[in-house]
């Protein structure tokens, strides 16, 4: 299965062995806490991300907080203190789901084993064990990072936590290509997807290490935002794309100086009177490369001048780039 709602019990049933080893070749593991596991079939089974999972480049495990409730209605939310509209997600089911996700990651680490003592004290999906006997992660591991954000090492700033626990939140840092690359270079993360009016703040304070936003707009839940982050990271994994250079030519990539990508064309040569630029049909690779660079510069300075300034500060623009940019500023508007 490309996507599965996983518990420690599920892992044991699947293996039948006390020693749980990670699938060979899997280098990035993504765990997701969500009330709607079915939504993640999109990234687990389809397109580039689905192919990459079938190749063993990454794995995905989804944990439903409803499986960690104790009442017949499987309640995961309640009315907010202080009044107001909407409902707030309960902290305890989220805590238990996160505990099992963290434990499963620990057990899947090379050389890890599940002892009889761990079995005796472990909570599982639907467990009615008391809070005192259920698995809990060490308090120090759950503390959010107090380290100032490093723009290029955002996910590394998680204090003593063993893995980033990421909440998709409008209060979070804006997701960008740097974070996608850092996630792709890591062993993975745990994404927490909120619903309703939000999560009990005490869960966020205790367990969340990072908050990430896609932008200044609101979605019905964190699932779509989490899928966007996962897709952006997975396509950067070596072997995920058929052509290894494809990702290097993307917008925002370091190989393109963090600028917007240039326009692309394919057959036919003429479409409704519009021709493919002659330079692209010339076969002159140096001229084509220069044309693409200049098109990238022109598009970026027009649509995202902030990226030009950033590239300039980081020393990514050469003399030819600056000369071309000056020529654009002299052109009549």
Terminal Cα separation, in Å? 56 Å
* Helix fraction bin: 25-40%
Average predicted confidence as pLDDT: 83
Strand content: 5-15%
Tell the overall outline.
elongated
What topology, given as strand order, has the largest sheet?
2-1-6-5-7
CA-based gyration radius: 24 Å
| Structural classification | alpha/beta
| Low-confidence parts | 1-26, 114-149
- What is the tally of helical segments? 11
DSSP summary, beta strand count: 9
Q: How do the helices and strands follow one another from N- to C-terminus? A: HEHHEEEHHEHEHEHEEHHH
Described by strand count, sense and barrel closure, the largest sheet is: 5 strands, parallel
Structural description of this entry:
The chain has helices spanning 8-15, 41-45, 47-54, 91-108, 116-121, 177-184, 201-207, 223-234, 285-303, 305-313, 319-330; strands at 29-33, 59-63, 77-78, 88-89, 165-174, 188-192, 210-213, 270-271, 274-275. It is an alpha/beta fold and 333 residues long. Strand 8 (270-271) and strand 9 form a beta hairpin. Helix 9 (285-303) crosses helix 11. The longest helix has 19 residues, at 285-303. The protein starts with 7 loop residues before the first helix and ends with a helix. Residues 1-26 and 114-149 have low confidence and may be disordered.
Q: What would a concise description of this structure say?
A:
With 333 residues, the chain is of the alpha/beta class. The protein has helices at residues 8-15, 41-45, 47-54, 91-108, 116-121, 177-184, 201-207, 223-234, 285-303, 305-313, 319-330, and strands spanning 29-33, 59-63, 77-78, 88-89, 165-174, 188-192, 210-213, 270-271, 274-275.
